[in-house]
Amino acid sequence: MTGSVLKILLPLAVAIAAFATWEIAVRAFAIPVYVLPPPSAIWTALVTDQASLFHSLWITLRVTLEAFALALVSGFLIAVLFSRNRLIELTFAPYAVALQATPVVAIAPLISIWVGEAHPELALLILAWIVAVFPVLTSATVGLRSADPNLVDLFRLHGAGPLQRLWRLELPSALPQILSGMKVSGSLALIGAVVAEFAAGSGAATGLAWRIIESGNRLQIPRMFAALALLCALGIAIYLLLSLLEHRCLRQWHASAKAREG
Amino acid sequence: MTALVRLNGLSKRFTTGVEAVRGIDLALKQGAITALLGPSGSGKSTLLRMIAGLSAPSTGTLTWATERPRLGVVFQEPTLMPWARVEDNVGLPLELDGVARHAARSAAQAMLARVGLKDFTKAYPSELSGGMKMRVSLARALVGNPHLLLLDEPFAALDEIMRAQLNRDLLALWALEHPAVLFITHSIYEAVFLAERIHVLSPRPGRIVAEIPVSLPYPRDDGIRLTPAFLDIARDVSSALAQAMETA
Q1: Are A214 and A165 in contact (CB under 8 A)?
Q2: What is the DSSP letter of B206?
Q3: Under a CB-based contact definition with an 8 Å cutoff, are residues B148 and B179 in contact?
Q4: N or C of chain B: less Cβ packing under 10 Å?
């Protein structure tokens, strides 16, 4: 009990102390607002510009969630193919690695030429998906293969079909790996959405990244920080939600989610 | 009694070139407990996997007395699904055979009551002790009322007291429906206590080097372990095993 209270109180205390120091330091040294705005100015910018900022937050969130959902489904399906057929994996795994290894910023201009003109949001979605799919794919591929070989024998002995084996044995066996892959993938989807907007955004899709560029160009530094704060909050929220999901799914049975009593 | 399954000249050579067992002739009698005793690496598990149909023999044949024999298997580890409740672990074989979940569950609950775990049907495997997990594994193997129960050194990882307890439990459960049982072990005393007949395997490649009948009446209890008859048989098995090790 005290542990969980401390887990919230301690970082919160650090945050309050840091913001207070920041505010005082900016005022004491008279730092210009276009170099480093005080937290109070950032808050004011957040409140005055909330209409455009929260609209942008929604756009970034939507791209992130769509990319994440797409990464989850496609990553899992490809992992099923990989785990079923060694030949398919040997043939296509290098391409998955190549896609992952190429920096998304470098692919962005190409994608924006292909689809960005007509569908700017689709370009962002594709780029965020490229970044987000790999952790799900690799963790699910390893996870689906990690079923207890004796249980596999038991399923064979009782004539289980491939679908039964997938749903009742391989998927639950892979769940811990898939869930931790999802945590990485969720954060990467947001990073992908933001980087994609920086690299391929045209002003037609105005997510938070675009607000940051725009504010920077206009030297509206408090607004820039406000957009950054919203991105930070979004990233934390995604991570916390996925951690909660992981805990919910595994708490009954998995060692990683079980505290030893006594 | 007639043989449920007859093994004729069964051999297994893996693609790696390792020969696990060679020329096994063995009959598993209906309603009887047969023990297969051998040192580790004598191909006991390979033999079990071939009988279970999980591995194809390189040469030789298996002849079953029934058309579609129902099998139950217990491995050396409890091998439970950690994400499923005890009752769903036990009901798994029935569900895979197409029985509806609620029917499988009630059959599982009845079986769990027989192995003394009726208060743990809703528990998860991680909440059970090693001995309890093994009982769940035993319940799962028996829930489908198998013709043949295959046990692959099931109690080897348990302590002596728990092992003796589970040996008694196994005999009690066997006495209910009298399935044929193949019990694989490397413990001489366990083999003599449980089996009606003991086959001794040589080191790799495993061959049957001795066949020793155990003429002790059922039901057997722990008192039998110290009787002269028990100890005589144990001595015979022991010297057969020693001989098998020498010829290797």
Answers
A1: no
A2: B
A3: yes
A4: N
For A61-112, how does the pLDDT look when each residue is reduced to its tens digit (9 = 90+)? 999 999 999 999 999 999 999 998 889 999 998 998 888 888 888 888 888 8
What does the pLDDT read at residue B86? Answer: 97
Helix A120-144 and helix A50-84, axial crossing angle in degrees, nearest 10:
40
First-last CA distance in chain A: 15
- Are the C-beta atoms of B44 and B15 separated by less than 8 Å? no
Query: Hey, which residues does B10 pair with through a beta bridge?
Result: B24
Q: Is the dihedral of CA B128, B129, B130, B131 positive or negative?
A: negative
Cis omega (within 30 of 0) for bond into A135? no
Span between the terminal Cα atoms of chain B, in Å:
34
Cα–Cα distance measured from residue B42 to residue A73, given in angstroms and rounded to the nearest whole number = 46
Cβ contact B76:B157 at 8 Å: yes
**pTM for the whole thing?**
0.85
Sheet order of strands, B33-37 included = B71-74, B148-152, B180-185, B33-37, B197-201, B208-213
Closest among A42, A19, A21 to A229, alpha carbons compared:
A42
- Reported ipTM: the value is 0.91
B78: which chain A residues are within 8 Å (Cβ-Cβ)?
none
Q: What is the largest CA-CA distance in chain B?
A: 54
Q: Vertex B193, ends B187 and B195: CA angle to 5°?
A: 90
Scan for tokens 């769509």, then name that residue.
A66
Tokens at residue A53, please? 């900022």
Tokens of B95: 């569900």
Q: Which pLDDT belongs to residue B181?
A: 97
Record: contact A153-B97, CB cut-off 8 A: no
Q: Which residues of A touch B53 (CB under 8 A)?
A: 157
DSSP A218: T
Q: How far apart are CA B42 and CA B150, in angstroms?
A: 17
By a Cβ cutoff of 8 Å, what residues of chain B touch chain A? 49, 52-54, 71, 73, 75, 77, 79, 81-84, 92-93, 96-97, 124-126
Secondary structure of chain B: what % helix, strand, coil (to 5)? 40, 25, 35
Contact present, B140 and B149 (Cβ < 8 Å): no
C-alpha B229/C-alpha B248 separation (Å) is: 29
CA-based torsion, B88, B93, B99, B105: positive or negative? negative
Contact call for A156 and B96, based on CB within 8 A: no
Widest Cα–Cα separation across chain A: 77
In sign, the C-alpha dihedral spanning A76, B78, B12, B205 is positive
* A164–B81 C-beta distance less than 8 A: no
The structure tokens 């749903």 sit at: A167
